[in-house]
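Dear all,

This email documents one entry for the complex benchmark we are building for the journal club exercise. For each entry we list the sequence lines for every component of the assembly. Then comes the predicted three-dimensional structure of the complex as a token string, followed by one or two observations. Please use this as the template for your own entries, and keep the labels exactly as they appear.
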Amino acid sequence: MGNKRIGFSTLSQKYVMALAGIFLMLFLVVHLTINLLMIVGDDGELFGEAVQFMITNPFIKIMEYVLFGGFLIHILLGVILEIYNYRARPIKYAKSLKTEKSRFSKYMIHTGVIIFIFLFIHFLNFFFVKVGFVPVPEYADSPHDFFPMAVVVFQNPLYSAIYLVALVFLGFHLKHAFQSAFQSLGLNHEKYTPAIKVIGTIYSIVIAVGFALIPIYFLFFYS
Amino acid sequence: MNITLKIWRQKNANAKGRFVKYNLENVSPEMSFLEMLDFLNEQLIKKGDDPIAFDHDCREGICGACGMYINGRPHGPEKKTTTCELHLRSFEDGSTIVVEPWRSKAFPVIKDLMVDRTALDEIIRSGGYISVNAGSAPEANSIPVDKHSSDKAFDAAECIGCGACAAACKNSSAMLFVAAKVSQLALLPHGKPEAARRVQKMVKKMDDLGFGGCSNTYSCQIDCPKGIDVEFIALMNREFFKAKVCKSKAK
């Protein structure tokens, strides 16, 4: 009768999806805070210290694996739910003027796929160097010497453009994600939901614009 | 006014359907959408054609029987309006109106614009009983209910079970319907004893019947003829979480 699905109910899947999403949103805050140290104008000195802390701190090392788990769960569940949802309507409408309250909600899988592709490019630029999949470029002193790598990557207008475009889509994804995560966890109340929506909008703009400052800085203001 | 209709015609559940065009001349803007279909059917019957099959009952917006996808929206373009209470004055003179049945794996087409919505009844049935004494009416004040909860429960109970939420949803998810049914009982003391079992069973049934999952687009709330709020979906999510984490397994 129904469509086949993995053992858990769609509601449980949404819960896990939301929790993984919130975890990834917290990660973005940490990631942004550290990366913004690159553009304080000291040629990456402060940033280098932060990187040193991140790669030596045992807690952060453990969290790195947790982070990968979070990404994996969020991506896999996203795809599984999308396939399941797609199959719930085998015959589509001939004319559909779908309305929705949250404009970006319809395109979560699309923005998600774009972010996923971007993530691969981003890994090629930085993370794969760190773990040794990609050889350390000659202008970097060590696999953790990210500052010169960032300079080279972002002074290439093509890479900067790719990053900026991806960040716009990340912003769209987060705009819906933030309040959607609370709704999925059952946290919707007339008292605080309006605040969640405002905070979600501010959060998505801060993350997207914050990260965008880095390629813009290296492309136009760094020499 | 004159209108052109493009209506989905399908002989039976297994037949292949197609759109058929009908031109209607000199119809009154004051006609309801269903009256207009009656008017068209009379003409079809006179010509010896098969009339268009569609669901309807009370024709005053409370039974939830009517429901068709009109111009890309369940129950047509007006807010908080069922198909039976939609009037032709909501459309422009000379316009073309596309009418389709609800599209969902869980709502198979029976004929033309009629779909089988037994799935919604099955979800309700899966929720089971509530422990109240049958017989004469109980003393009104024996179970105190606070005003806020009773108001909210009433808001949820406004759901007429037409299925527009599932028809509107891009995932064809019946979450708003199930949430309304779970909430109206979960909010009242009468529904508390079986609340944990009820929500788990109803959610499972909803999944088993082939409805999609919720991705919080909230189009269900916009197209719900009774304007059921998505806050009830969050309430159901809470109830579900409580039941899964704190209570024993649903048998």
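Observations: The helical segments of chain B are 33-47, 118-127, 147-157, 164-168, 175-186, 195-208, 219-223, 231-246. Chain B touches chain A through 48 residues (CB under 8 Å).
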